[in-house]
Amino acid sequence: MLFAAAILLLLAGAVFADYWSALPAEAKATFAGRSTCIDCHQDQAAKFIGSDHDKAMDLATDQTVLGDFDDATLEHDGMTSRMFRSGKRFMVRTDGPSGELEDFEVKYVFGVYPLQQYMVEFDRTPDMPENEISRLQVLRISWDAIDKRWFYLRPPDVDDKLLPDDPLHWTGIAQRWQTMCADCHSTNLKRNFDPIANQYHTTFSEIDVSCESCHGPGSLHIELANKKSLFWDRNHGYGLAKLKGEDPQPQLQTCAPCHSRRGLLDDQFKPGDLFTDHYNLELLRPETYHADGQIKDEVYVYGSFIQSRMYHKGIRCTDCHDPHSLKLKQTGNETCTSCHQHAAGKYDVPSHHHHAVGTPGAMCVNCHMPHTTYMGVDKRRDHSIRVPRPDLSVELGTPNACSHCHVADQLQSIDDKSKESFASKEYSLWLAAAEQGNETIADAIRRTDQWCDEACEKWYGDERKTPPHFAEPIVAFRRGEPNSIEGMLQLVMQPDEMAPALARASALAELAGAGSPESLSVARKILENQNESPIVRAAAVNAFVLASPEAASRELRKLLEDSSRLVRNEAARILVASGGYQTLTGAQQLRVDRVLSEVKESLMETSDRAGAHMAWAMLCEGQGRFDEAITAYETAIRVEPSTTGARSNLATLLENLASQNPSPNSAAMLARVRELRLAELPLLRRDAELVPDNAALQYRLGLSLYLAGEMDEALRQIEKAVSLAPEVAEFRQALELLKQKLEQE
């Protein structure tokens, strides 16, 4: 017995020792590559092969190129581009940076379905290491993988030929791989942009979206698996992010960075991290979302999904999608009915959807997840998974899934020219035409909305209008309706189950952006709630740009230690922008400076964009660091010469310095001011013409014209800004002041 007991004690000791043996808590995982995963995860690897993640990017080879390079041609914009082979190389002859036809080698392919794009490398130097990539530009000549044809991928709402100096030209910054696409199509990507040399040294550990993009760097997991221990590590678990636990958030926030429209705070995100510690989610702006949160511009998935009831009920991506093949787990309506297993006849029957079985109208996704086509051929479904609301369309002008299908019924009632133009256009293009002032199409949409709402009233009664929707106060506010501010304040304070956090953050941001002082009271209440979503708290911080410097200092300095990077970065930024920074003690300013170093780090993650340097320049300016601000503005102009904003900001700063502190350099400063404003004006005209419904752009053009002495045109532009955004107090005040000045002259 004693011997047996001794053996058991030894075994227990060995087991405990096995458990207690652990990697150091500070041990950091590194990227090991997918080849190290396959032996133990063969089923997952087999599903991954050929997936969209696997085909996200690759070298251009006979095996990866889908397009026809057998001396194929494509006519566009009065020119003929040619796709051909030169030995083993894939070549495209098209207009280059000079505007003339040139031959370019395709180095990489991008994507696989429903389109494939092709990339050309520029600025590569002979001494660059093989694993580094210089500037990559994405050709607009693209391959339609569905219809097997070449097509020219135009920017939305741009029909004119793009000139080489246009940022939208394929050689421009809007078509640059590093600025628009790279982080989400390769694993462990590092841009490595040198703003002084204006040169990229971009690297990745794997060219496509591989295992470690979603699971995190795998070296610790491999080390632990090879130890053959009875236990995973007490410090590091199994060495990877836990994406399959009861809490859906780690998985959702791991998918979110590449399936959302967002700003970058840093490039240190690891699967399982909080999204808002590394990214700033796009709000429901009029340019990107419809007022009710439906997709408009390319916003991808996450911002839509977090509005949905599915999200609030704990549904996660892999409930519908296989995480490795990315395919839907079920086909047809079974994707929905596999969870919605209600009593027979509740949903998947004509008594619910009122369409014949087997027709498009009987498909759950066509009513609850209508698609919008992006990039010419890519149909993407709206993941807010909502009940169609044609009643809101009648009242507010928002889209609805019923009209999505039935607006084409109006073709017989419109004039022949419009009928020919819109016969093959999808719903989103009808909506865009109506928004741009096409009254024929707008009337057709209104008639369709009314007909659809009458049908829904007959089928579903008043229940179709419940619960109240956040779009109602948002649209009322944008229209400048009486008492609309009160409606927005009520929306901001609603609980998450009544109004999604994204909608509440957006409402608060619009109130602050319009100069509404009422937003400060609700902002204070929100900041008192530590359990509130970081995106709502960040919007509350932003509202204090309207506060007095003393009030901003009092409310925001305590947020400099906030657990959310998004919140503390915004607090530091607004302390400077509001003037609150200047009211702080020296010790308090040092705390702000520490957070601002984090802000600078965030901004310089996108140092290849002028906006990063402009934002830093404005922060330096607000702190009185004028030399650093001037350098940052000049860097913005050098990095992105065709952008607007940097020249006008720098001109104002130099003008103020010259007038407040006269010096021998003042004359040179004022000469530089004239040069900057002269260069800025045509760029602002270009942008205002490209986006005629953007009130802020029209206003900035108006101010620039005023400074250039073109008073009558300045008046017209500022009047246009006010008509587009009557709720913005700054626009109205500027218009009134300009009118007074013109009357006095």
TrEMBL record:
Stretch forming the signal peptide: 1-17
Species name: Rubripirellula reticaptiva
Xref: PROSITE patterns: TPR (PS50005)
Doubled CXXCH motif domain ranges (all copies): 316-343
Taxonomic path: Bacteria, Pseudomonadati, Planctomycetota, Planctomycetia, Pirellulales
Domain Cytochrome c-552/4: 178-216
Domain of life: Bacteria
Pfam family, one: Paired_CXXCH_1
Keywords for the protein's UniProt record, in alphabetical order: Repeat, Signal, TPR repeat
Name by which UniProt lists this protein: Tetratricopeptide repeat protein
The TPR repeat ranges on this chain: 610-643, 695-728
CDD domains for this protein: Cytochrom_C3 (cd08168)
